[in-house]
Amino acid sequence: MEREEILFRTLEKYLLGEKLRSLTQAGVEDTEPFIKLVQSALQRRKSRAGSALENHLEQVVTDHSVTYTRTGVT
């Protein structure tokens, strides 16, 4: 899991850096594009963390032979 996180953060840092550079080089002075970029990155991290939790829980229930539905409605 640590390797996946390191790879994700490395790629994210590169991609966000590229986008930030393009905004600053274009002379964008409005803060809204920067805020949207950061909000998008934070939402992606939250979503990724939620998916990781689902994956871990899936492994736990599978290891204990529990019947489940990953996207079931309760």
From TrEMBL:
**Gene Ontology molecular function:** DNA binding; type II site-specific deoxyribonuclease activity
Q: Which Pfam families match?
A: EcoRII-C
| Gene Ontology BP annotations | DNA restriction-modification system
Q: So which domain of life are we looking at? A: Bacteria
> Restriction endonuclease type II EcoRII C-terminal domain: from which residue to which, for each copy?
8-74
- Record-given protein name: Restriction endonuclease type II EcoRII C-terminal domain-containing protein
Source organism (scientific name): Salmonella enterica subsp. enterica serovar Panama
Q: Please name the taxonomic classification of the source.
A: Bacteria, Pseudomonadati, Pseudomonadota, Gammaproteobacteria, Enterobacterales
